[in-house]
Design a protein that fits this description.
Layout lengths: L9 E5 L5 H10 L4 E6 L3 H13 L3 E5 L6 H15 L3 E4 L16 H29 L2 E6 L12 H21 L4 E8 L5 H4 L11 H13 L4 E4 L1 H12 L2 H10 L11
Parallel strand pairs: 1-2, 1-4, 2-3, 4-5, 5-6, 6-7
The structure holds NADP nicotinamide-adenine-dinucleotide phosphate.
């Protein structure tokens, strides 16, 4: 008789699991031996994603806790960390907003909620998750930036700022946490078909379906890549915006149509 050790169940936490990329990631990871902790605000959509993942063999827990409520967030993460400390935490929930017209800023409420969910919440989640991961000596944090994080775009000023911010934070944490066994990856997608992407004004070159983006992200996370940016042509083009002299970068942005604000209130 052998005393076979049951295979370890890997726990993966995904916020924004009701969205295009989050739900595609959940489905991509769902299989036997995987426990998914899925977060989303739209309960019916979340239940449907969870059912799809269970049908593929995954164990699934769901939550709709208010991520921007520091106390509720801390209680939730303390509870799940006690039960099943995540092996991978994909901090994917995010929003976008646009200026209402050329020369006008984004609505102030949108700015506040964007900074909250795109930047402050993933940092707060790292604060909560790192102590447990450090004590265990393993874990991986995944932050969702954007190719808009390479250079600010006139059509999405606050979004660009939050995505540049979370990119810098993830890059910094990678070096800080590697010595204690915690991996950190920053994801920089281009245009991925989703309600958020559909609502964006301007050109969307090399737009790709969410399931394709999810496969690229999963592969990159498995290799603990520091940066997972795609698609290649758009990544290469937008990377130049960050390294070229500012005047040339600004000129290119105008030339490529990323400076066009389509709805004008005047
Ligand atoms: N699609 C793109 O082209 C693209 C490109 C680069 C980066 N990204 C990034 O990828 C991530 C996922 O975006 P997506 O394209 O999948 O967009 P999406 O389909 O609109 O999904 C956004 C997700 O974020 C959640 N969310 C938004 N605000 C929230 C809040 N205040 N509290 C809790 N959850 C909140 C939504 O939850 P509910 O549905 O429950 O409201 C939804 O699950 C975002 O961080 C986005 O910035 C997307």
């Amino acid at each position: 008789m052998t005393n076979a050790v049951p295979p370890k169940v890997q726990t993966i936490l995904i916020t924004g699991a009701t969205g295009a990329i989050g739900s595609a990631l959940a489905t991509t990871y769902a299989q036997n031996g995987i426990r998914l902790v899925l977060h989303g605000r739209r309960s019916e959509t979340l239940a449907a994603v969870a059912e799809r993942c269970r049908a593929r063999g995954a164990l699934v827990d769901t939550s709709g806790v208010e991520l921007t409520d520091d106390t509720a967030l801390a209680e939730w993460l303390t509870q799940i960390s006690r039960q099943h400390l995540p092996d991978i935490a994909i901090l994917n929930a995010g929003q976008n907003a646009h200026p209402v017209g050329a020369g006008y800023l984004e609505p102030e409420d949108d700015v506040t909620s964007l900074v909250d969910i795109n930047l402050r919440v993933p940092i707060a989640m790292a604060q909560q998750l790192v102590p447990g991961m450090r004590a265990r000596g393993s874990g991986q944090l995944v932050f969702i930036s954007s190719l808009a994080g390479w250079h600010g775009l006139p059509g999405t000023p606050t979004y660009s700022a939050t995505k540049a911010g979370i990119k810098a934070y993830g890059e910094a944490l990678r070096g800080l946490l590697a010595p204690v066994g915690i991996g950190v990856s920053v994801i920089m997608p281009g245009y991925v078909t989703s309600p958020m992407c559909n609502a964006m004004p301007g050109p969307k070159p090399f737009e790709m379906p969410a399931h394709k983006a999810a496969s690229l992200i999963q592969r990159g996370i498995a290799g603990n890549k520091a940066r997972i940016s795609f698609p290649f042509p758009l990544n290469f083009g937008t990377w130049w915006l960050a390294v070229l002299p500012a005047a040339i970068a600004q000129h290119l942005i105008r030339l490529l149509g990323f400076g066009r604000i389509e709805r004008d209130t005047k």
